[in-house]
From TrEMBL:
Catalytic reaction(s) noted: S-methyl-5'-thioadenosine + phosphate = 5-(methylsulfanyl)-alpha-D-ribose 1-phosphate + adenine; inosine + phosphate = alpha-D-ribose 1-phosphate + hypoxanthine; adenosine + H2O + H(+) = inosine + NH4(+); guanosine + phosphate = alpha-D-ribose 1-phosphate + guanine
Keyword terms of this UniProt record: Acetylation, Cytoplasm, Endoplasmic reticulum, Hydrolase, Immunity, Inflammatory response, Innate immunity, Metal-binding, Nucleus, Peroxisome, Phosphoprotein, Transferase, Zinc
Protein name (Swiss-Prot/TrEMBL): Purine nucleoside phosphorylase LACC1
Top-level taxon: Eukaryota
Alphabetical list of Gene3D superfamilies matching this protein: CNF1/YfiH-like putative cysteine hydrolases
GO CC, any one term: endoplasmic reticulum
Amino acid sequence: MVEAVLIDLFSLPANLHNNIQGLLHNTLETIEKCSSIHAPCVYVMHCQRQGSERKGEQEFLLPALRGFQSLKRRLEVVCAQTTAAALYTIKQRLDEKDLRIIKVILPTLRKDLMKVYIDYLFTAVYQFEFEDLHMVSDCENLQISVPQHEGQTLPSQDVAFIRSEIQMYLESLPSLKGELTILRSSLIPDDIFLHGFTTRTGGISYVPTLSSCNLFSSSKRRDPQVVVKENLRRLAKAAGFNPEAFHRVKIDHANAVCIMGKTEPDNYDGIVTNQKGVTLAAPGADCIPVLFADPVRKACGAAHSGWKGTLLGVSMATVNAMVSEYGCNMKDILVVLGPSVGPCCYKLPRESAKEFHRIDPKCVRLFDSASPYIDIRRATRILLERGGILPENIQDDSITDQNQNITFCTACHPDKFYSHFRDGPNFGTQIGFISVKD
């Protein structure tokens, strides 16, 4: 059953303007008639023209809104100057109520246009179905089955205009949860490398578990790629790197490594380069974002090390790629472990814990329990040292610095970091990033 109805009155053809109130009244009447048991939330999207007041725009529609008592508390008129602004505002309302199934009632001429806006501003979490405004006449129009996925028919210049409008709107939004903050390591020389670890502040993501500087989008989360791209743009501006030369690992929870300039694997958890101005990044939301820097050969790398990748040796695989590709000396490579879930919080089933116990019994606490506590940082550090990395060249503040200026526990600090372990499946993501300066 439809959870929300969006009525698009944003840009009706000129010959329909005189009938707008009648069209809206008839549409609402159909919705009310078909929703006697569970009324959907109804959002009326209307254009706020330059120089007009929002209140005045809403009053224009009031005659059509009167009399719909069952919809009254679930009916809202959203006025904005652009389709992007209106639709993004409605998305916020949907997310506040955790609504996913939406019927869009709109003029035929707006259908292809609206589908492009929706493709950019929403993810596969949501289901949309479309109906022509003048055809709404019976209850069957408010039932939903399989979402429509018709081919894009708009000219490329129209799609480019929509993309530009969305980008300009998102750039105009204020940052949430304070200023953008970047954590930096004193181990990596800043005259050679640009690097840092992000926190969750300073972006525009508003869903609580994604707010605010979420840097990863997927079909299972509510943050679309355009929002993540805007968060990345703000990070790049603050950090000083080029977002167009930004490469993030394609997570597989394994140990494959991508060599920049060579054929890119389909999936990989490590990435290395000696190219100047190319920024490498590894995400983390409990898993460890690990950064690598060789100030002698001027090469760098990044790796995503979850519990599986840790056991498979992804960090040493990244180190070995730097050695084989760029002639790095193992003793020159610096390694920094970023914010990640600590042994205070992280548990695994006992069968998986056994693998960490084999690395070092101190990697496991309460080993005899069904779900022992695991220290993936200690395991990573031990594997790096066994592989030839000098202990003093590994920064892990959970043991070396009482102030914990880099290696915070993500699960213990909800104000600073995202955590899958803490927040569940709709979690946000921070990153570690590094590049060789130009």
